[in-house]
Specification:
This protein has helices at 2-18, 37-46, 48-58, 65-83, 134-141, 153-169, 217-221, 234-246; strands at residues 28-33, 92-99, 105-112, 118-127, 176-185, 190-198, 204-211, 250-257, 267-276, 280-289, 293-302, 311-319, 322-332, 340-352, 355-370, 373-388, 391-409, 418-428, 438-451, 455-468, 510-523, 526-538, 546-557, 560-569, 578-584. It is of the alpha+beta class. β19 (438-451) and β20 form a beta hairpin. The longest helix has 19 residues, at 65-83.
Length: 587
Amino acid sequence: MFPCRLPFRGLLLAGLVGLPLAAPAVPLEIELEGLSEALRANVEARLSLRIEQQRAREQGRELEAEEIERLHDQASRDIRDALQPFGHYRPQIEDRLERAEGAPWRAVYRVTPGEAVRLASVERQLEGPGAEDGALRTLLEAGDPRPGQPLYHPAYEALKARVLSGALRLGYLDARWRRAELRVQPAEARADIFLTLDSGPRYRFGEVILEQSVLREDRLRAYVDLRPGEPFDPQRLLELQFTLTDLGYFQTVEIEPLRDQVDAEQRVPVRVRASPRPPRRYDTGVGYGTDTGARLSVAGEFRQLNDRGHQLRAEARLSEIKNTLGAEYGIPVGRRSIDRLRFTAASEAERLEDGDTFKYLVGSSLTRQVGRWQRRVYLEFAHEESTLGGAEITSDLFTPGLSFTRTEADDPIHARRGWYLYAELDGAQRGVLSNASFAQTRWLTRAAWPLGARARLLGRAELGASVVEDFGELPASQRFFAGGDQSVRGYAYQSLGPRDAQGQVIGGRYLATFSLEVERSLWGNWGAALFADAGGAGDRPGLPLAKALGLGLRYRSPVGSVQVDLAHPRDEGLSGVRLHLGVRVGL
């Protein structure tokens, strides 16, 4: 057997020696010189050498020497292609690839972009049935690019997209570019644009066909804001879908333009198909919040009491601090999903910092959309029995009120940019089902601003004021307190306010609280925050403000931001850190 092994091993060794050795992986540094920030960003996004280097490092390796040399040979072409969208068609590029002994390779590109090509002419023409439509012509002729401007390819593409999108909104569903040409003459640093839009016929809305079994047709048609003969606009179909979905009656809403049934007047019928949601829904919840302690909630929602859209919701919330039991009967009115007439009945018991209160109430309210504001007008009768410090207060209040709410945000759950405003005015008059007279206003605003790609700044301010004949007659629910998760962190829930002779908190006529918070994403859905709060309640304007500083942990969940905060009160004589737990939804 021994003589047979020698030839085999020898052949194997010879084969291994004859194999080419793989080129070693080489660290690489890439340098770009002579470019503005915008040009540099586009070059880096198009440079194959950088792209492949990043891809290799994601795989845990460096580029091989052969890869670097091949990609370096392609780099000048990549740079030229990246500069052309900005009008630089004749750049000067000096490139070199060097490596010192024991050092990483360096790929250096010194770029002189040169003179940008400028637009000599921009020709825009409109043809077809819409040639005399002033709105369509204005759409075509408005905006950049203009003669004399540097050529910028994205502006040219944006113009084409903007005109087609606008034509679609005006009902020209078949609009198309008969000619869309960009001529560039690099040697003369000149470019010309030639655009000719063929409008095609203008379509209009036809009959709206409703296919659903939840609401009677006249009630549902109140929400359909499409009139036969109006210019066909796909955006309005999307808005109608959102409106019908927001009503809360339908599981799915499908809207289909029937293009194959267009009549001689170019009217397009629209079919709306809606499937019902389950008629009843029951919810239970268990949680914990610093302001409430352990809590339990049970709720039932009855969505389809009749074909006029009446609904009923009943809910019970139990916690260590506050217990509520209530029901609300809702009737849709008007033409918006928010337009509702509501009748409510509720009871509430709450343990305060230095007392407790119990009340029951009945009321009605009408909510309507007014422009971009939600307006709520309400009447409420409440009987309340409060103990604050050593005083017992029994009150009956018949309270008319008015409130306005508006939200502008880029995300309803986790807003990075936007604002929220709530303003309310209410009051009561002695002798009109009331044993006290007062007028009260409350304002709450919140806002968010982005700070770079991963952080945001959050601000909050709340103000309140009361005008009252005899403050001692006001029950606890009509007095102002501060402190807690949604007020001044670092202080217990409703622990800030005027005190009686025994030092017990009894609430005040005025309220002012403020907060600034910087929140930053760390990894995944986790983030951290730094915040400063200030606020208080008092018997006169310009009240002294309690202050607190803190930091927190954030978790971004589908229902809102789960918050764990540690806050340190800054008032003299106070020390320690207070833990706050809660959930923030939207702003």
